[in-house]
Every structure is written in C-alpha cells, then in structure tokens.
Amino acid sequence: MSEFVQAAILAVIKRAPIWIRQDLTSKDLGARVRAEESLAMIIADAIRKQGELPE
Fold first, then answer.
1. Average pLDDT of 2-11?
2. Record's superkingdom (predicted)?
C-alpha cells in the first residue's frame, strides 16, 4: 500500500465521527453494517481526493 493511501486512511480514522466508532462495535448488525459502509465510503473519498492533488 502506498504511503499516500495509508496517510489518507489514517486521517479518516482519526477524524471518524463518534457514532461510527460506537456503531462499529455495536451488537446490532444493522448499525454495524451502516457504520462499516459509511466508513468505507469516507475512506474511498479521501483516497480519491488525495490522488487528485498535484505531486
């Protein structure tokens, strides 16, 4: 994994909303799935945006 991808993922995780953090550990499957899908979309967007930056 490239350094810029790792940096993008780490930045997203550091600023993840509390509801995502809580729902990722929820026993409620629906809440956990929503949190996982939301976090995945946020990470994908951050990687896409970082890839658009000039080097």
1. 85
2. Bacteria
